[in-house]
Automatic annotation (TrEMBL):
Annotated organism of origin: Leucobacter rhizosphaerae
Membrane-spanning residues: 9-27, 39-58, 70-94, 130-154, 166-186, 198-221, 241-260, 310-337, 358-383, 418-440
Membrane-related topology note: Multi-pass membrane protein
The keyword Transport appears for this protein: yes
InterPro entries (UniProt xref): Cat_transpt
UniProt name for this protein: TrkH family potassium uptake protein
Amino acid sequence: MIQSSPPRFALLVFTALIMVWTALLALPFSSRSGEMTPFADALFTAVSAICVTGLSTVDMAVHWSFFGEIVILVGLQIGGIGVLTLASILGLTVTRRLGLRQRLLAASDTNPMRMGRGVSESQAVGLGEIGGLLAAVATSLLVIEVVLTALIMPSLMAAGYDFWHALWNSFYLAASAFTNTGFVPLVGGLEPFANDFYLLSVIAVGVFLGAIGFPVIFALYRYVIGGGWRAHKRLGLHTKLTLTTTLIFVVFGWLAITALEWNNARTLGAQDVGQTLFNAGYMSIMTRSGGLGIVDPADMNGSTLLVMDMLMFVGGGSASTAGGIKVTTIAVLFLAAYAEARGYQDMQAFDRRIPNEVLRVAISVLIWGATIVLVSTVTLMHMTGRSLDVVLFEVISAFGTCGLTTGLSAEVSDPGKYVLAATMWAGRVGTVTLAAAVAATSRSRLFRLPEERPIVG
């Protein structure tokens, strides 16, 4: 299975890790009270950690012991890197080399379309560059989280934390930000730091870097050391699409949240102009899949929740620590619509042609994601009796592994927790697995059926 279908192998390992983490978190010494954590809460937290979501049914700051926090922290690091990528990094560390099979294994984790037959090597990261990508993943994870930890520490120490507690909580926050998980180990969450623009800016940068994806970080690194602006053509199509679309969605979310919450006294309406603009921009970045919010979504207008639903559903970049259907997926769909409107035969972007099989995968991911959200929303609405805007927000936050919440996760019964946990699992591994399955089913035929066109539109 490892050789024939790495995505299926990753799915099984992913699920097995969730079961192991559930067992570890259910142990008595994982909680501060010394009592066993109920199975539903342990499972929900394990799924949320491994799927780097950040939703929780217990108070993360007071429920877990130091051992429990270590288990959660290790889980979100594994989930953020990716199972196959982590396995490849460990293999590279031990053997000091990567064979073809190991390269294909790692490549399929960063790009599920590699599983297709006859796949062109005109990829965002070529097979010859996989070793460099794995080194970039390990290096960026270590360097970025260490730098974020050092930058976060002064704010926590100024807030009264001693050195060791500030160090641990800073590293926890740094890992939570870069992996786009959204867990906060601090009592009261980030609310006491709502006016600390420095700390929030550091967290926002960490979330943004994690959301653009390791291939983009790798490409930017090569771009910087390869000649800067003079080497503009060195940036590939995937990098350009990811950065452009991400910035467009961040700016759109920033403007939309500012406009819709401007007069809402419960959220941004009671703040001055500068704080309103900053907090709106911060919340827009958090919809990339960060989840480290400072404004309670339960107090927001329904129109704002709908905008954030769209942003969370899109999520971050492919092969990143973020969730959602990914910005490149939505970019390809828009490019296809634009090409159709202009009468072009091919999709084009940045002087490159995008093949039709990419559109096929993008449509499949969109339909699969919408189906998951629809089924989960209907099920939870029936279970809880809550309104559509609240339930839909919670479901999309779970599917997009975002972690922003209206409080519904902590209120639902055990069956509701299982539904949300399944939504997180499907949102993290389902779309990738489906994309790989669709790509892998490409096969040639010796005949073609007669053509007939149905009426569309």
